[in-house]
Design a protein that fits this description.
Blueprint (H helix, E strand, L loop, with lengths): L7 E5 L4 H11 L4 E6 L7 E2 L5 E2 L3 H10 L3 E6 L5 H14 L5 E4 L25 H21 L2 E6 L10 H21 L4 E7 L6 H7 L4 H6 L6 H11 L10 E3 H8 L13 H4 L10
Parallel strand pairs: 1-2, 1-6, 2-5, 6-7, 7-8, 8-9
Antiparallel strand pairs: 3-4
Protein name: Short-chain dehydrogenase
Organism: Stenotrophomonas rhizophila
Amino acid sequence: MTETKKLVAVITGASRGLGKGIAVELGARGATVYVVGRTTIGMSQVSAGGRPVPGSIDEAAEQVTAAGGHGIAVACDLSNDNDIQALFERIKAETGYLNILVNNAASLHDEMGKRPFWEAPVKFADIIDVGLRCHQVATYYAAPLLVAAGRGLVVNISFYSNAKIHDPAYYAAKAGLDQLAASWSEDFTPRNVAAISLWPGFIRTERGEAMLGEKTEVFEGMGMESTRYEGRVIGAVWDDSDMMTLTGKTLIGAELGERYGLSDLPGFSPKSLREFYGPPHPRFDLD
């Protein structure tokens, strides 16, 4: 197992929400974390209904450092291949290797879930660009650094494929992430790099809180995960001496949490939504 003081991670889409939570959780392990995203000024993004939401890559990087790691904010437009290439060239120059890549960035829209889909804005198709294509490009440029580390982990943040609460483009992107992890594993396995697709549950994010306001009981009623829970799951996968047995699989975060004996907030352990939204494709499932 690589010592945590030497751990180097990249988290995309880490200005806020799940990405930031994962970054901070890895920071608590002493990792150097490259916090990647577009938001450099807090409150410059808005939630559904037009409410500004907090969070920026600089603020997230500061929290990583405060947690005990070394947070490095990197402004990067993940729809731009040149920006992605420059990110990993910087990491190569600064560290020479990479242990963990978390592909989390996504293009989300306030009207996702509108039916029929052809009455929603056509721009929703860009979910496939920042949500799928960018992660193929990021992993392409990250791969030599992961191999150079001697042991690596790529995590695609996906979601239950049969939830049917978002736009079709969203599910196309998520299904693609599951397949990418399976395909990457063929080349990565002989080089001691694992690639997995991870299905979190519903997350209590800043954007969601801004949308619901004082109705916090909604979060408790839905059993939402904190933003840091999946970071603990990823850390446990990294610590697992049998990590390579998971490669190529689509894994449910709550099920991994149970496997590794993890909890989230005090008195709360997230539950798998397999029963409600179905399992991963049998070819990718651990069951």
